[in-house]
Amino acid sequence: MERLHPLMLAGTGSDVGKSLVATAFCRIFLQDGYQPAPFKAQNMALNSYATPEGFEIGRAQAVQAEAAGIPCHTDMNPLLLKPNSDHTSQVILNGRPIGNQHATQYFRREGREVLRQAVHEAFDRLAARFHPIVMEGAGSIAEINLRDVDIVNMSMARYANADVILVADIDRGGVFASVYGSIMLQEPEDRKLIKGVIINKFRGDRSLFDEGRKQLEQICGVPVLGVLPYLKDIHIEEEDSVSLERKNMEAQAGKVNIAVVMLRHLSNFTDFDVLEQDSRVHLFYTSNTEEIKKADILILPGTKSTIADLMELRRNGCAQAILQAHHDGKTVIGICGGFQMMGQEVLDLEHVESDVERMPGLGILPLTTTMNGEKRTVQVDFNWETSAGPSSCKGYEIHMGITRPVAAGVKSKPVTTYKESPRCWGSYIHGILDNAPIIDELLSPWLENKEEESAFDYQAYKQQQYDLLADAVRHEINMPELYRILRGE
Questions:
Q1: What are the residue numbers of the active site?
Q2: Are 371 and 353 in contact (CB under 8 A)?
Q3: pLDDT tier at 382 (50, 70, 90 boundaries)?
Q4: What single DSSP character describes residue 452?
Q5: Rounded to whole angstroms, how far apart are CA atoms 399 and 213?
Q6: Whole-number Cα distances in Å, 164 to 36, 128, 139, 284, 372
Q7: Widest CA span of the chain, in angstroms?
Q8: What is the pTM for the complete model shown?
Q9: In whole angstroms, what is the distance from residue 474 CA to residue 489 CA?
């Protein structure tokens, strides 16, 4: 098939839907016989994923690779920033951490070319294997104060000779100003790269925007390729924790109520996507002690800052509510950082996370965790023992720290998972709840007098959602015009 230009989905701001639209085009190009691959030079997210080779990338690019039908790779997201606080982030280059940096340090001009060269080399390797490359920008392309140090938006589009499509969120208002301003604030050479606009998150009758569409094309000089509806009924794993604010709901009768304890540095919340789709379950996020009391199952999720979040749980009263729930026979489980919290103690003698060297854990499991500077990132196959026998399961690990059972006078071997009972266990394995046998065991004590259904096939469900997303976007986008743009016509 003819080779297409790289396509970049740039944004008028953050959370306008770039990742979702990029996922859709990865699937559309695959359906149309191409071999697409996603690419985001720099991503900032607490949700990450382990590649088959055991490296770390942003979760959005792993999702986009799945939609494209290919294994994920670090070349798809060579630079990942994982926030430690409001001002500092762990910097991960080509899948491995290279240290923590303050924002002012990271965005300085000195040393910037090293990172720029690294992301360019990753793009070149990817473009040699796949086409078209579906690129994604970060935040707004109109941050002119950061233009000199930009390595992910227009400078990357310029390097790749990509055709840029600007994505704008009409639901938040000000769409005319945001589109026009984003285009007009570009340097002339970059403005020429912008070949079209996609209006996203439209609610209601789209014909009411027909005149607005024409006006936007007139003032901006580029075509509006489509107006996408607010796709609330299609479920694609999300990367930004902004979405969690919509999931902070109260317990419901007639369902197994599962509360994910809302942490300030919560990460990898995609661990719970399968539970959200399970008809037997009502899942919600909360740090309200009264809502915690109403849950049948409590989950302590992953976190980028175990010690800081453990201190916060004690401050806001959640720690006591969790212990009471455990005492009352509720199910309490922990994943990754939540697993570390469930132990007797967390040690940080090397100050990997904070200046606090010793922090008592919740004391639910007989474990102790020692933080260290080495991050473990790996995909894993494991067996899970149930009453029906062992089941083969899959997941992935991304964590710093070693956890051992507490044994007087004996240095115990490290553990990845510790299961005290079906109602009390913890694990470092992300994606552990994507496995149906584990879900069935988790829910079984709470299904009496509730709807009896078996867990559904989550992998098949995800593939179905990618197809639904592609169909929805294809229906609204002028695909012949987009293909003409990508062919350079």
A1: 336, 430
A2: yes
A3: very high
A4: -
A5: 47
A6: 16, 20, 14, 38, 42
A7: 77
A8: 0.86
A9: 20
